[in-house]
Predict the structure.
Amino acid sequence: MINERPLLTVRRDFPRPDARSVRRFSGAATVHLVDAMDGRGALGYQIKAINPESSAFAGAALTCYAGPDDALAILAAFQIAQPGDVIVAATEAFTGSAVVGDLFAAMAVSGALTAIVTDGLARDCDGIIATGLPVFAGGISPNSAAQSGPGTVGLPVVISGVRIAAGDVVVGDRDGVVVVAQDHLDDVHEQLLAVRAAESSYPKDPDGHVHVPQYVRDLLASDQVRYLS
């Protein structure tokens, strides 16, 4: 006889980044982080902050797979989360119902969590905004999800083609959400500093205007370009 599948599979002992490693990414612009990772690492464009005025965050991911139209794994994640964690919930981008709302945001605040990120939908926007917690979702719907499982907590998930493991660092702002793999935190931070330096030193004229880079102007003046008129 086939064994009955458990409602939840939970990993509690995954490695976590130390607080200093996470703090290095606090306030980092997601566009700079992506540039530091060869132009990749951001979740899908649909996943945006419910309240753009309260969107900046950085924290360690606590991943969960809730599946379509279900929120049981997300509730379980709150129970094992540690202060500073970011709940990252994969739902296969299901759009028939919302998996997070104001009560979940309030639970996150009570647990001193940093943010909630999901490729699913959210509801109770006014209540979420009132908590002040950064909540990112793929859209909005009043419909409510079930809480029946099965699901996982603490195991890797995939959102928008990006693999996210528990303990990876997740950073968000108005532009979206970026994931930095825990194994690459030092390298990405070093590149982030270089990107910031390059951005701040980008040439401007005396009036502060920014122009097309010289290498593009040189190309346009070379025999490598054929003008039709």
Q: What stands out?
A: The chain has one domain: 8-200. The chain is about 25% helix and 25% strand. The domain at 8-200 is CATH 3.50.30.40 (Glucose Oxidase; domain 1). The chain has a mean pLDDT of 95.
